[in-house]
Amino acid sequence: MALSNGIVIDNLEDISDPSDWSTSKFPNLSQLDSSLRCQICKDFLKAPVLTSCGHTFCSICIRRFISDSNKCPICLEETYESGLRKVLLLDSITKWFSNNRSELLKSVKIDQVNDSQDEDDANCELISNNIQILDNDSKSADSSKIFTINESPNNTEKKDDVLAECPICGVFMPITDIQGTHIENCLKSNPEDMKKSTQKVTRNGSTISQFFSERTNKTLQKSSSHITQQNSLTQNESSAQSQLQPKLVKTKQRLANLDTSLSTIKLREKMNLFNIPTQGTRIQMEQRMKEFINLYNANLDSMNPVNDRILLDRLQKWETLINNIKPKHTTPPINADEQTIKRQKIESKEWNNKNKDHFSDLIKQARSNMKKQKNKVKTDSDNIERDDDKEHEQFSDNDTELLL
Amino acid sequence: MSSIANKRILKELKEFSENHSSSDSLLSLVSSQDELDNIIININIKDNELYDSNRPFTLSYKINKNYPFTPPQIIFIGNNIPIHPHIYSNGHICLNILYDNWTPVQTISSVVLSLQSMLINNKVLEKPPDDDNYCKHGPSDPLQAKWVFHDDTV
């Protein structure tokens, strides 16, 4: 894209921005787009949290900001880390939107738009008219596997549609479809054909169920403005899969803010507890610990928390990114040489740490190659290999523990 | 530049160029380095007789590695520095949202808008009272200065 003075920035096109919708059939979608973005990073909300003043940001963004100054970036009201609450519903909405955005954008730009949109609208109305019924039915879905959708005056096409489960493949679809070609295909039990014919329908089915589960949640939230713990329990029970966090989250406690009066030794102990690298100056260590606490707590706000190892990886990435900048304005150029040397040392250490696994793999390979070449040393290398295998097993055990 | 700052500034540039791409726009992006850490913007002031609408003011918006968590360095540069009770001759701007009250929610667009309104609403062609002293003894980086914000009128 050429800016006013002819500057060309290639990757400007790739940056997603609310203005993408301005050329589409529904320019107003840009409002939805921009409201699903974090005001700090301008990207889609990741693990959104609500401040006590009612504003929403990415968990990691607001934590990074709050750890320096305790105010809301939007209204400057006092905001504390302890006051942040995760918003799982918004998380799933944002995730849906960002996942389907490119497709949506594409379809909105083509002429077919009007038809499909009308259909969508009709579906929306249909569903909103029947939430109650669907809700009841879903609870007793096991006993009666057929549930009907009431007549909707605006919808002439789907008037007689009755959803039913195909007795063979178990997919919900309009009963007319089952009676038509679908059941024959199913009986032929040609898996590829079946896939083709049912793919579309399964997708519909899933979106409908998703849709009404989100709807019911919304209505639940409306009826109870204060969500207590009990409420959230009932919410979880109401088949709101989209708002379920893994159980791991409940067992994990949030980390407290870093106590800067901690002695360096204690700080180092604390960092060792989480396997955080402890090199560098005290200030660097504090910064690293702070960032880790932010990452850790933000991870607990996420729908799909990752294990601590990945967090450590991210921490490392963050640090190298921060350090990569040459401190142009802050430090005089005389010190630059010393600093670059120090940085290079640290970088090589980090490089070694990062690729430890890879290195050990290579060593293993080399050893097995040696084994093939020299039959004499066979017994020795066997022993070594066995040791390696043991080590490897221990590693993978650790991994699974962390994943669980 | 860190990826967070980089991504963020790209989004801002896109938004800015999207909104101010027409030729009659009062704002224009003049240049930005490959690193995207220093963005130069021309600001034209039309509705104030005190300023010549044909001579744009040039603003430098320099971001650092922690942007947007730390404020960017924003100064007027070039030969044409606006005369304003809150703008020093060396281009430094006395505006609280650029320093103490900076929040990561602010963008190039929002900052330029504030400066535009600051200039459009100006009624006196005066320099700040301590202009000479500040330009001689003040820090070269406005972020290092200690600002006292007292005047809410302009």
From TrEMBL, chain A:
<dbReference type="GO" id="GO:0008270">
    <property type="term" value="F:zinc ion binding"/>
</dbReference>
<dbReference type="GO" id="GO:0003697">
    <property type="term" value="F:single-stranded DNA binding"/>
</dbReference>
<comment type="subunit">
    <text>Interacts with E2 UBC2, forming a complex with ubiquitin ligase activity.</text>
</comment>
<dbReference type="GO" id="GO:0097505">
    <property type="term" value="C:Rad6-Rad18 complex"/>
</dbReference>
<dbReference type="InterPro" id="IPR004580">
    <property type="entry name" value="Rad18_fungi"/>
</dbReference>
<keyword id="KW-0238">DNA-binding</keyword>
<keyword id="KW-0227">DNA damage</keyword>
<keyword id="KW-0863">Zinc-finger</keyword>
<comment type="pathway">
    <text>Protein modification; protein ubiquitination.</text>
</comment>
<feature type="compositionally biased region" description="Basic and acidic residues">
    <location>
        <begin position="377"/>
        <end position="395"/>
    </location>
</feature>
<dbReference type="GO" id="GO:0006281">
    <property type="term" value="P:DNA repair"/>
</dbReference>
<keyword id="KW-0833">Ubl conjugation pathway</keyword>
<dbReference type="GO" id="GO:0006513">
    <property type="term" value="P:protein monoubiquitination"/>
</dbReference>
<keyword id="KW-0808">Transferase</keyword>
<dbReference type="InterPro" id="IPR039577">
    <property type="entry name" value="Rad18"/>
</dbReference>
<protein>
    <recommendedName>
        <fullName>Postreplication repair E3 ubiquitin-protein ligase RAD18</fullName>
        <ecNumber>2.3.2.27</ecNumber>
    </recommendedName>
</protein>
<dbReference type="GO" id="GO:0006301">
    <property type="term" value="P:DNA damage tolerance"/>
</dbReference>
<comment type="function">
    <text>E3 RING-finger protein, member of the UBC2/RAD6 epistasis group. Associates to the E2 ubiquitin conjugating enzyme UBC2/RAD6 to form the UBC2-RAD18 ubiquitin ligase complex involved in postreplicative repair (PRR) of damaged DNA.</text>
</comment>
<dbReference type="InterPro" id="IPR013083">
    <property type="entry name" value="Znf_RING/FYVE/PHD"/>
</dbReference>
<dbReference type="GO" id="GO:0005634">
    <property type="term" value="C:nucleus"/>
</dbReference>
<dbReference type="GO" id="GO:0061630">
    <property type="term" value="F:ubiquitin protein ligase activity"/>
</dbReference>
<keyword id="KW-0479">Metal-binding</keyword>
TrEMBL record, chain B:
<dbReference type="GO" id="GO:0005524">
    <property type="term" value="F:ATP binding"/>
</dbReference>
<dbReference type="InterPro" id="IPR000608">
    <property type="entry name" value="UBC"/>
</dbReference>
<keyword id="KW-0067">ATP-binding</keyword>
<protein>
    <recommendedName>
        <fullName>UBC core domain-containing protein</fullName>
    </recommendedName>
</protein>
<feature type="domain" description="UBC core">
    <location>
        <begin position="4"/>
        <end position="154"/>
    </location>
</feature>
<dbReference type="InterPro" id="IPR016135">
    <property type="entry name" value="UBQ-conjugating_enzyme/RWD"/>
</dbReference>
<keyword id="KW-0833">Ubl conjugation pathway</keyword>
<keyword id="KW-0547">Nucleotide-binding</keyword>
<dbReference type="Pfam" id="PF00179">
    <property type="entry name" value="UQ_con"/>
</dbReference>
<dbReference type="InterPro" id="IPR050113">
    <property type="entry name" value="Ub_conjugating_enzyme"/>
</dbReference>
